[in-house]
């Protein structure tokens, strides 16, 4: 595990400023040390992680956060943001943009992804955060397209993609990060182009 000085270490490697975004109910911000425990809890929850290859150990959860922090540096201050409720200051999960480190059939691309703790499902937080991120991606970064994908059986996540106005590709694809015959390997792909963002 990288210590609480992770941000300082990354700053020495490449100076950067983390972009922070705001919605009516949410702050999308950089990661804090106090996010580690609640993020581990949600990443170890079997329902939250149902459509991921596995739940995360404490060490894996910390590595995930450390990688998010590093990507803020390499991606110009944007990435997978920690999400905080304005009203209570409570950490509820993460939503953001990512450039994967592995090759996909449709590379290169920028994806949007999310992971919220179960008590905060069904309240519109994911869509609220994602719409603000789309606005940032298209108007401030200048992206032409953002994609999202999930395993074919994750209808809940697919529903979010549809609500966001994303369009599903006709063909599915096999996730290159999962082994052959893995039950989650077949994925659906959704896209949103800048010209279609309202």
From TrEMBL:
<dbReference type="InterPro" id="IPR051531">
    <property type="entry name" value="N-acetyltransferase"/>
</dbReference>
<dbReference type="GO" id="GO:0016747">
    <property type="term" value="F:acyltransferase activity, transferring groups other than amino-acyl groups"/>
</dbReference>
<dbReference type="InterPro" id="IPR016181">
    <property type="entry name" value="Acyl_CoA_acyltransferase"/>
</dbReference>
<feature type="domain" description="N-acetyltransferase">
    <location>
        <begin position="26"/>
        <end position="195"/>
    </location>
</feature>
<dbReference type="InterPro" id="IPR000182">
    <property type="entry name" value="GNAT_dom"/>
</dbReference>
<dbReference type="Pfam" id="PF13302">
    <property type="entry name" value="Acetyltransf_3"/>
</dbReference>
<protein>
    <submittedName>
        <fullName>Ribosomal-protein-alanine N-acetyltransferase</fullName>
    </submittedName>
</protein>
């Amino acid at each position: 595990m990288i210590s609480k000085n992770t941000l300082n270490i990354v700053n020495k490697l490449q100076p950067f400023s983390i972009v922070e975004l705001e919605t009516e109910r949410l702050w999308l911000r950089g990661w804090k040390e106090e996010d580690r425990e609640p993020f581990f809890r949600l990443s170890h929850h079997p329902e939250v992680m149902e459509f991921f290859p596995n739940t995360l150990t404490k060490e894996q959860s910390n590595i995930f956060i450390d990688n998010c922090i590093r990507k803020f540096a390499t991606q110009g201050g944007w990435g997978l943001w920690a999400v905080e409720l304005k009203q209570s200051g409570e950490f509820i999960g993460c939503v953001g943009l990512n450039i994967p480190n592995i090759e996909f059939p449709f590379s290169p691309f920028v994806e949007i992804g999310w992971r919220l703790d179960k008590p905060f499902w069904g309240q519109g937080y994911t869509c609220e955060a994602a719409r603000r991120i789309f606005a940032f991606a298209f108007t401030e970064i200048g992206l032409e397209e953002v994609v999202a994908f999930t395993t074919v059986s994750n209808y809940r996540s697919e529903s979010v993609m549809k609500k966001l106005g994303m369009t599903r590709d006709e063909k599915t694809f096999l996730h290159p990060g999962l082994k052959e015959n893995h039950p989650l390997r077949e994925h659906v792909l959704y896209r949103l182009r800048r010209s279609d963002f309202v």
